[in-house]
Amino acid sequence: MKILVCVSHVPDTTTKIQFESDGSALNKTGVTFVINPYDEFGLSRAIGFKEEGKSVNITVLCVGGPEVEPTLRKALAIGADDAVRINTQANDPAYVAAQIASYAEGKEFDLIFTGKESIDYNGSTVPGMLAEHLLWPFVSFATKMDLQDEERAVLHREVDGGEEVVETSLPVVVSCQKGIAEWRIPNMRGIMAARKKPLAVVSPAEITPYFQTVRYNYPPPKGECVYFEPDQAGKLIETLAQKGLI
Question: In whole angstroms, what is the distance from residue 171 CA to residue 105 CA?
């Protein structure tokens, strides 16, 4: 079985976001980048299949410049077999999905894992668009996955008020979230082995980006907090009504 795990190169969750003076991009000075945590759930589940005794080859892929290679090396240290970097900037989710699909087409992958979203833009759009490009089934927000055989899988996913269990044929695109697997910490042996594992750099497909970000803005500052004493319930209700909140 061939599994492609798509990972994003994202700022650490503790990063204090600052933009360039003209608002054109994130100021990356002093920023630590990591594997997108939701993508890491997918990588961990792929490794789990291997540990269950299944014959699995795991390719990890990232769209980006040379700066993303440490992220790919960490994925190799965790347990991926080889890595691919598509040499173009991941500024447009539709463009990213098209690039991944162009790479995956014809390579006989049985399964593609992504995270449910990236923690920088929180768009949740790439996996669905990727599945559409490939004309594959798509299961989103998966919290559990088991393979019945080489052709079918059973997945659990969260829905409002409960859980949905679905069965699908392979190949399939799956977006992962917490629950599908536990994160793994690379050990020294994995880190050393990652240095010798192949990391291929491929040219992007000739696809025109769909849009370009013009400017980033900070959210408006929060207004002043107004306090009401316990005996001012009537005034509180009147204030909320005036603001159209009730």
Answer: 12
Here the CATH number for the domain that contains residue 30 is 3.40.50.620
For 147, phi then psi, to 5°, come to -95, 125
Q: What is the pTM of this model?
A: 0.86
Cis peptide before 209 (omega within 30 of 0): no
- State pLDDT tens for residues 44-95: 999 999 999 999 999 999 999 999 999 999 999 999 999 999 999 998 999 9
Domain containing 15: what range? Answer: 2-219
Q: What single-letter amino acid sits at 52?
A: E
Within-domain flag for 235: no
pLDDT in tens, 16-42: 888 888 888 888 888 899 999 999 999
C-alpha span between 60 and 65 (Å, rounded) = 15
Helix, strand, or coil (residue 239)? helix
Cis peptide leading into 171, omega within 30 of 0? yes
> What is the pLDDT at residue 165?
97
Cβ atoms of 31 and 70 within 8 Å: the answer is no
State percent of the chain over pLDDT 90.
72
Q: In 22-103, which ranges are E strands?
A: 33-35, 57-63, 82-86
Bridging pattern class, strands 138-147 and 152-159: antiparallel
